[in-house]
Amino acid sequence: MKLNERINQISPICRLGAYAALYLAAGLAFSAGKPPEFPDPGHSRMSRAQQGKLGLQAAAQVYQQMPVLPDSSPETQYIQALGKRLVAVIPKNRTWPYQFHVVAQKEVNAFALPGGPMFVNVGTITTVDNEAELAGVMAHEMGHVYMQHSAKQQEKSAVVGGIADIVGAIAGGLGGGLGGVAQSGIQIGAGTLMLKYSRTDEAQADAFGAIVLWKAHFNPMALADFFRKLGASNKNGPQFLSDHPNPGNRDAAIEKEVRDWPPENYTPDSPQFVSVRGHAGGVHAYTAQEIAAGTKNGRWQAENSKNGAIFRGAPANGNGTAAATGMVPAAPMSAIQPSSKFQGADVDEATIDRPDNWQVMPGQQSSVTIAPRAGAAGGAVAYGVVIQSVSLPGGSEANAQQVTSAIARSLESGDGNMKQNGNIDTITVAGMPAGSLQLTTVSPMPGQDGKPQPERDWLVALPRGGGKAIAFVFVAPQANFDQLKPTFDRMLSSVRF
């Protein structure tokens, strides 16, 4: 299973009532007549290393699920050069290893992942009126990384009670969208990483972006100009704006701050910008709907590889190419076939019987994968079961239907590949009520013909009381699922607490 249709929607650029008050509260006010200083980003319980790893893993998934231009393209080379210019003005002791990529999508969008990976749509390049506006879009998104908004949002989502808020937290615990099955619990979906930003987040990103523009010799008001134009046009930018609430009085707030800064000679559009914007108009770009459809059949992963758009920044996971791509090499059924001999395996607070030729592989975030050796690679699972213990936010109580529904909704919203297939049934596991639901996606293992193949996933979730729940996701390609269903049934019926 893979990651996330909402990657197509994540972290678009943004829009507060008490705007000036939020700036002050965020520590973003500056002394009159003095050069602006970058704010203190504060702290997140998620370490820099953790944020970086998650961002790189999510970026690798973008390359599987969106059409990305190769680094050799004029658009990418220009965006990388512009990004380097912006990064250069950030204090080295507070910067991040930003990297810049371009998505062949028509709609206006840009998003940045934790740790620094950023993606800019072709539609953004062709829509801006000048280079300062484009730099403003990028600087604003860099601000979300600098202020660690995604990591801080993760912390907030873990303490907000109620069944509606369980969705995002469970998605994070399960790997954020089971496309490629839960990646053995090591992934958090981009949709979960990039929760909708708050008005305070937007005020901070605006302020940071304005400082970057000023220090890089771009007019800071270009950032406000672009948002105003996008909001007025109502074309190609609704998602871009909806995921970032309008702070309100954006023009006035930025103008007030800039007015007290020392005079600066802003640079005009570079010849490179003019050339690339013209070239980008001729790039074959796709709509969000077309991208979603291509994600379902594995089109973008194949085309990106063919075009030389390969993400090389994914952290090594001890498994070479498979670790970087989240793919499982094709294997014959003889290498998957479960043994008729079963033995017990301890999984957190539970015990489950497994075929003795299937491996028990501990993952992160209280997850365990049980799979044949040939059925899993690089964190992705094509055959087997992922078992995840979940702590519901705030110790919330929920029944089997609610927990299963929450997980299913998060998987559907967190992965463009995931779809429910039927309704939730109530079954009994270890004498307790559990929810049972079938889902479908695209397998991380290609078929014997080398082409993407559909995958079937059986989600079973049951609450354990005290704000705890456990989820089982049984995974196999659609063509082989029925063959393995008796094994899955036997494993599930053996669960004991």
Structural notes for this entry:
The structure is a single chain. With 497 residues, this protein is of the alpha+beta class. It folds into two domains: 5-162 and 193-307, no CATH class; 333-493, Protein Transport Mog1p, Chain A. It is built from 18 helices and 15 strands. Strands 6, 7, 10, 11, 12, 13, 14 and 15 form an eight-stranded antiparallel β-sheet that branches. It has a three-stranded mixed β-sheet with strand order 1-3-2, sandwiched between helices. Helix 5 crosses helix 10 and helix 10 (221-233) packs antiparallel against helix 12. The radius of gyration is 23 Å and the shape is elongated. Mean pLDDT is 79; it is low at 1-32, 157-195 and 316-325.
Q: Helices and strands in order, then pairings?
A:
Elements (H helix, E strand, L loop, with lengths): L18 H7 L22 H18 L8 H14 L11 E5 L6 E3 L4 E5 H6 L3 H16 L2 H9 L5 H12 L15 H4 L5 H17 L5 H13 L4 H5 L7 H10 L11 H10 L7 H9 L2 H9 L12 H6 L16 E6 L2 E6 L2 E5 L4 E6 L3 E2 L2 E2 L2 E8 L8 H15 L4 E2 L4 E5 L2 E11 L11 E12 L2 E10 H16 L4
Parallel strand pairs: 1-3
Antiparallel strand pairs: 2-3, 4-5, 6-7, 7-10, 8-9, 10-15, 11-13, 12-13, 13-14, 14-15
Which class do the helix and strand fractions yield?
Answer: alpha+beta
Question: Number of DSSP strands?
Answer: 15
Overall mean pLDDT = 79
Low-confidence stretches: 1-32, 157-195, 316-325
Shape descriptor reads: elongated
